[in-house]
Design brief:
Helix content is 79%, strand content 0%. The chain is mostly helical and 114 residues long. It has one domain: AhpD-like (Up-down Bundle). It comes from Arcicella rosea.
Amino acid sequence: MSLVTEFNEYRSKMNDKILSSDNKVIKRIFNLDTNTYAEGALSEKTKEMMGLSCSMVLRCDDCIKYHLGKCFELGVTDAEMQEIFSVATLIGGTIVIPHLRRAVEYWEELQSVE
């Protein structure tokens, strides 16, 4: 099973389980997340690129994978991705490098799936 398939299936299964608890606060947080990345004054693509960079600085591998997937769907180019990686590593420092390695691996996997 590919990294992408495994991540997407697990994320979907657990989100369904979490949302089935019908917890109002959690549902509102999930909704806020969805609405934050919707098209607005900034494009959805720009917001996803920002989300990816922030997730790398915060060192959240699940968030990084999610935003990499969205960036891929929205047509982010390799050149744009390299700049996102550059900004995140500069802002986050060398502690981001292990996450950068995994991000590059996942980005390559996304490209090989299609």
